[in-house]
Amino acid sequence: MKAKLPFPPAENANTPLSVLLVDDEPVSRKAQQARLEGEGYTVFVAASQAEALNRAKVGAPRVIYLHLVAGAAGNMALMQALRSDDSCRHIPIVMIKDHADPRVLPTKLRSVGRERW
Q1: In terms of DSSP bridges, do strands 42-46 and 63-68 run parallel, antiparallel, or are they unpaired?
Q2: Residues 6 or more apart whose Cβ sits within 8 Å of residue 5
């Protein structure tokens, strides 16, 4: 059974929600983008922090998916930059973490209660 993605339902079911996927690893980015698009979402991608901040400001996505890279201090800097910008601070951020065990990959994107955003 597929895990439901953690976003609010669209007001108009015919209008796809836009999300921003931030991932500097091409293979992971492609897989996550395919998963999100398969769920019916319009996906904008960013491979760097600067690109992510710019796309978040211009594109106003409903949710930002941020791929966690082990030991990367840049994730915190990006989250702080997003939270300090008035045009981005309201956008929920969902963290994606890699798992070494391939049996865990189907649950990489899992539901998070809105109250935890």
Answers
A1: unpaired
A2: 36, 39, 41, 109, 111
Per-chain mean pLDDT for the chain: 76
Q: Distance between CA 39 and CA 69 in Å, rounded? A: 24
Stretch 45-53: mean pLDDT: 90
CATH fold group of domain 18-107: Rossmann fold (3.40.50)
* Rounded-to-integer distance, Cα 33 and Cα 22, Å: 10
At 24 the pLDDT is: 86
105: amino acid identity, one letter: L
Question: Can you give the pTM of this predicted structure?
Answer: 0.70
Residue with tokens 């339902």: 9
Asked whether the predicted pLDDT for residue 7 surpasses 60, the reply is no
DSSP 23-68: -S-HHHHHHHHHHHHHTT-EEEEESSHHHHHHHHHHH--SEEEEEE
How buried is residue 81: exposed, middle or buried, by Cβ count under 10 Å (0-12/13-18/19+)? middle
CA distance between the termini of the chain: 24
